[in-house]
Amino acid sequence: MATLATTVDGLKLPNPFIIGSGPPGTNLNVIGKAFKEGWGAVIAKTVSLDASKVVNVTPRYGKLMGSDGKEVIGWENIELISDRPLKIWEEEFKKCKQMFPDGVLIASIMEEYNKDAWIEIVQRCEAAGVDGFELNFSCPHGLPERKMGAAMGQDPDILEEVCGWVKGAATKPFWAKMTPNITHIEDPSRAALRGGATGLSAINTIRSVIGVNLDTLRPEPSVEGYTTPGGYSCKAVKPIALRMVMEIATMIRKEFPGRSLSGLGGIESGNDAAQFILLGSDTVQVCTGVMKFGYECVKPMCDELLAFMEKHKFETLADFKGKSLDYFTTHADLVKRQGERKAAQKAAAAAPQKKMVQADGEWSGEEFVKQSDALARS
Ligand SMILES: Cc1cc2nc3c(=O)[nH]c(=O)nc-3n(C[C@H](O)[C@H](O)[C@H](O)COP(=O)(O)O)c2cc1C
């Protein structure tokens, strides 16, 4: 019988589905709902020492709809970290661990570039009983103005130093959550691991502008007629998240074997999760998906992931973690492999494959869409 149960960095999870930091983990009430519905772990909304500096606006989300006008495929937010005082969070973390002693509760923390502040927040959350940490180095809006979040996550030297401070203060595992708003995500990832992070999470949201209202001519989400670029999430970001997870996992495998990776970005199903695990994730997180479908979505996600495992006769997540990483290569190597296959086919006088454009001179104005389609894999 296949099992979804897994142990990552000493944390025992009934399944790899974790609530990603954001609205689905904003207070004890909703965190409790997540555990009751069977989520493998919860990462609470990001907390800081001084919540009085956090002032949110409304509206703060913008949606991109699919062509049917019903399905949400992209989601921008300009939401900040938690606006609730750390004192309240400390009480709720304690209560949560009393109510759900086996529930894995991870605090997401963010602070300014100040060693004492990072040490204080780690110690206070640990005293309240959390099982681990996620360091939010990746919020793309608002907080970079205070040199927090993505502003820190884009600077490998600072990342390494801050991870070193946390390493010195924490007795629990901690994951550094990486920003995708950078050219080579391996660079800050490597720095966080050098600094002592137990693992990494990727990705946070992608800096974005969701659209412009063609009646008012104002960009969205419009707050008093103005906006600011926000963070993009939901299924539209999945291909970018998968690419970054693949790059980080490849780097971890070569340079930091044994460190963990939590993948996220657009996960809405068990099959999405299977893809992130095949590209090297130990666990997967869901944030926007919970906002779209509710906490109950974990059950069909677990069922679909189990069905995938049974189809392939995988008994544990470890049986297929990273299994698809070996099939990435350079474009030059693809050309070589295809040349070899064609030569072999010619030698065997086999029938050529479905007619596809082989060279740029073959594109035709009349057949253009058909030719594009023939070249694509869905
Ligand atoms: C409304 C909203 C608020 C978020 N707040 C946080 C946050 O406080 N801390 C954090 O680390 N990530 C935050 N995120 C980012 C998510 O945890 C996640 O990295 C990102 O949305 C991609 O995953 P998804 O497509 O499953 O949402 C937030 C995302 C959304 C949509």
Give a short account of the largest sheet: 8 strands, parallel, barrel
Bound molecules: flavin mononucleotide
What general form does the structure show? globular
By DSSP, the count of extended strands is 14
> In percent terms, what proportion of residues is strand?
15-25%
Low-confidence stretches: none
Order of SSEs: EEEHEEEHEHEHHEHEEEHEHEHHHH
Give the % helix: 25-40%
- The CA-CA distance between the termini, in Å, is 32 Å
Strand arrangement across the biggest beta sheet: 3-4-7-8-9-10-13-14
Task: Indicate the structural class.
Answer: alpha/beta
Mean pLDDT: 95
Number of helical segments? 12
CA-atom Rg in angstroms: 22 Å
